[in-house]
Automatic annotation (TrEMBL), chain A:
SUPFAM superfamilies: P-loop containing nucleoside triphosphate hydrolases (SSF52540)
SMART domains for this protein: AAA (SM00382)
High-level lineage: Bacteria, Pseudomonadati, Pseudomonadota, Alphaproteobacteria, Rhodobacterales
UniProt name for this protein: Heme exporter protein A
Keyword set, alphabetical order: ATP-binding, Cytochrome c-type biogenesis, Membrane, Nucleotide-binding, Translocase, Transport
Organism: Rhodobacter maris
Signal peptide: none
UniProtKB/TrEMBL annotation, chain B:
UniProt organism field: Rhodobacter maris
Record carries keyword Membrane: yes
Protein name per its UniProtKB record: Heme exporter protein C
Spans traversing the lipid bilayer: 20-41, 61-81, 93-112, 127-147, 159-179, 199-221
Domain Cytochrome c assembly protein: start-end pairs: 4-183
Assigned keywords, A-Z: Cell inner membrane, Cell membrane, Cytochrome c-type biogenesis, Membrane, Transmembrane, Transmembrane helix, Transport
Similarity field: Belongs to the CcmC/CycZ/HelC family.
TrEMBL record, chain C:
GO biological process, one term: cytochrome c biosynthetic process
Subcellular location: Cell inner membrane
Organism lineage string: Bacteria, Pseudomonadati, Pseudomonadota, Alphaproteobacteria, Rhodobacterales
Topological relation to the membrane, as annotated: Multi-pass membrane protein
Transmembrane segments: 12-37, 43-64, 96-117, 123-148, 155-173, 193-213
Pfam families: CcmB (PF03379)
Family: Belongs to the CcmB/CycW/HelB family.
Keywords carried by this UniProt record: Cell inner membrane, Cell membrane, Cytochrome c-type biogenesis, Membrane, Transmembrane, Transmembrane helix, Transport
PANTHER family the UniProt entry points to: CYTOCHROME C BIOGENESIS B-RELATED, HEME EXPORTER PROTEIN B
Protein name stated in the entry: Heme exporter protein B
General function of this protein: Required for the export of heme to the periplasm for the biogenesis of c-type cytochromes.
InterPro entries: Cyt_c_biogenesis_CcmB, Cyt_c_CcmB_bac
Length: 214, 242, 218
């Protein structure tokens, strides 16, 4: 079953096209890893897929209410405890998987600690535990392994594997090899947007103004 | 041929460039005679004295102050609905003109009010409304200045203009309720019983037309500048990307 | 939605000063005014309604920039925008949380402060009614201003410039209601206008705020 399919998508940052003609599809049980140099537009692409910004062109098809998005920032509240942070998102997504998520991301011992007293890696684990409580099948993850140690990366890879095995799918931008044999790799470099002179997307202020300016 | 063609910046630049000298000429041909006629060739009204001459600036400026905001509302809506960049830039270009017109109306009003009512300022509904309108212009311009990304700025100021318009009208009625004022009613009623005599009325209409054309001239000029600066920004951005 | 409300209230309590700061500011305004205009009871009684309304308005303004800024910085606004509750609801709940933490304490404390300003006896009822009807509109409009300036580094001053003109109708009718109440005049018009403005504001402005948030997250 195809959970997410993207066709000829053009995404923009600050009004300028950064990636064009992006197309892929994501089946249940599969993971897709986005690769590409810094600034190529991985974050922009993921934010567009998450619906935070409109695409310049192309289509994104996905079943309704299927996607859970995790950004660079984890969106944790420093003064709330680990459990309270998770319980909040569980209430928002109307699920009751807080206990399972605590166990799966190895946060049980930290359950009552305030989020501000966690280390960077522990915060990141809590941020990923948030994904588990959403109960959504399509994970869209932006650099999920930043500041995780080797053991936590393995923990995360196991969580992704379990998610895929249960019929979910994951799309992530990351540089670390998670050791997921289900993962395909999509290199974004060929989709780098061309300048307008070479047939790329033309904004309202990219037209030839010379005649008008004289 | 549709009116939306002028939403294309290039087309707008061409057309406005051609139009500008003509509009400027028309401005000179109406504004100068209107003001000269009004200032020097109208009889002095015995009960008002020479101060009455200020109406040839005061009334046109006040009329424009309100209508420029309405124009900004319309162009903001066009931007928000149809995403025409020129429309958003025209709203941006109009705001400082509207702000200055409001200021002129307030200052000339004070100059006129002092000998007439014996006070520079009175918390009369009309005066109060103009002061509030002035604040709305300031807020609108400040929001444009504060936001880096031009499309974001256009969107947010558009929404502000929409909400602001509703509250500006509300404030107007609140002010009327709050203090029934001493400002005279509108001088330009079509009812011949009410409006001021023709001797004053004719040069006044000419001045209003002149001010209107002056606004169009300035608006075209400023919108052209805004388009150029947007074009520059787009070029710079491309440069950085490459 | 209730989860969001409880979270925001809990955060306000734990961060400290959520409830107290606005009130303390209100008290300071009320204390400073007699220093400025002199201690004569009759003058204070005449301007009490205006001072109380102005104090409430400024105290409310003080906490506006925090409505979205914290959620924007730690990334939860992005996550809320992709969550299954509509952004309009998020914005409305945020305004409600702001009202509970600043507006409601002001409504409750206003009679005490009114004593300091010699507010005439019959006006107390109308002071309470006007604040209860008016402060929700202040919170909702403030949320709109906060939504417009959420992406800006130093949005505080700009926020005041954008929001204060929007407060004019509420302030006029609110203070007028108290003044008329104090003088025993007819209060129907300012009462209905105040209630009407608040109702329309609550019904419509959240759509504008949500639109502004969407633009800012883009």
């Amino acid at each position: 079953m195809t959970l997410l399919s993207v066709e000829t998508l053009t995404v923009s940052r600050g009004g300028l096209a950064v990636l064009e003609g992006v197309g892929f599809s994501l089946e249940a049980g599969r993971a897709l890893v986005l690769r590409g140099p810094n600034g190529i537009g991985k974050t922009t692409l993921l934010r567009t897929l998450a619906g935070l910004q409109p695409p310049l062109a192309g289509t994104i098809s996905m079943p309704p209410e299927a996607m859970a998005y995790a950004a660079h920032a984890d969106g944790l509240k420093a003064t709330l405890s680990v459990r309270e942070n998770l319980a909040f998102w569980a209430a928002i997504y109307e699920t009751d998987t807080v206990e399972a998520a605590l166990d799966q991301m190895n946060l049980r011992a930290l359950e009552h600690r305030a989020a501000m007293s966690l280390s960077a890696g522990q915060k990141r684990r809590l941020g990923l535990a948030r994904l588990l409580v959403t109960g959504r099948p399509v994970w869209v993850l932006d650099e999920p392994t930043v500041s995780l140690d080797a053991a936590s990366v393995a923990l995360f890879a196991a969580a992704v594997r379990a998610h895929l095995a249960s019929g979910g799918a994951a799309l992530m931008a990351t540089h670390i090899d998670l050791g997921l044999e289900e993962a395909e790799i999509l290199d974004l470099a060929p989709f780098k947007a061309r300048p307008p002179e070479e047939g790329g997307h033309r904004g309202a202020f990219d037209h030839d103004f010379d005649g008008a300016f004289l | 041929m549709s009116i939306w063609e002028y939403a294309n910046p290039v087309k707008f630049m061409q057309t406005s460039g051609w139009l500008l000298p003509w509009v400027f000429g028309a401005t000179v041909l109406t504004l100068v005679p209107g003001l000269v006629w009004g200032f020097f060739f109208t009889p002095l009204a015995e009960e008002f004295g020479a101060t009455v001459k200020v109406i040839y600036v005061h009334v046109p400026a006040a009329t424009l102050a309100i209508n420029i905001w309405v124009m900004m509302l319309v162009t903001s809506l066009i931007w928000l609905i149809r995403r025409h960049h020129v429309s958003a830039l025209a709203a941006k270009a109009a705001a400082p003109i509207g702000m200055v017109m409001t200021l002129i109306a307030l200052i000339t009003g004070a100059l006129w009010g002092q000998p007439m009512w014996g006070t520079w300022w009175e918390w009369d509904p009309r005066l109060t409304s103009f002061l509030i309108l002035f604040l709305f212009y300031l807020g609108y311009m400040a929001l444009w200045e504060a936001i880096e990304n031009p499309d974001t700025a256009a969107d947010l100021t558009g929404v502000l203009c929409l909400v602001g318009s509703v509250f500006a009208v509300l404030s107007r009625y609140a002010a009327i309720f709050w203090n029934q004022g001493l400002h005279q009613g509108s001088t330009l009623s079509l009812d011949s019983e009410e409006h001021i005599s023709d001797v004053y009325w004719q040069p006044l209409v000419l001045s209003i037309v002149g001010f209107g054309l002056l606004f169009v001239t300035l608006l075209l000029l400023r919108t052209r500048t805004e388009i150029r600066s947007r074009r520059l920004k787009a070029l710079e951005q491309r440069e950085r990307m490459a | 939605m209730i989860a969001l409300l409880t979270r925001d209230l809990r955060l306000a309590i734990r961060a400290g000063g959520g409830f107290g700061l606005g009130l303390a500011f209100f008290l300071i305004v009320v204390t400073l005014v007699p220093f400025g205009v002199g201690p004569q009871g009759d003058i204070l009684a005449r301007i009490a309604s205006g001072i109380l309304w102005l104090g409430a308005l400024l105290a409310c303004l003080l906490s506006l920039d925090r409505i979205f800024a914290l959620d924007y910085e730690d990334g939860s606004l992005d996550l809320l925008a992709t969550a299954p509750i509509p952004l309009e609801a998020v914005v409305t709940v945020k305004a409600l949380a702001h009202w509970i933490t600043t507006g409601l304490p002001l409504v409750l404390a206003a009679p005490l402060f009114a004593v300091l300003l010699h507010l005439p006896g019959p006006a107390y009822l109308w002071l309470e009614v006007s604040l209860l009807l008016g402060t929700p509109a202040l919170s909702v409009l403030g949320t709109f201003g906060a939504a417009l300036t959420v992406g800006l580094k130093r949005g505080g001053l700009l926020l005041s410039l954008l929001v204060l003109p929007l407060y004019v109708p509420t302030l006029i009718f609110g203070a007028e209601l108290v003044r008329r109440g104090a003088e025993g005049m007819a209060i129907e018009v300012p009462l209905t206008m105040l209630a009407g403005i608040t109702a329309a504001t609550i019904a419509l402005v959240p759509f504008a705020s949500a639109a502004a948030i969407r633009v800012n997250l883009r």
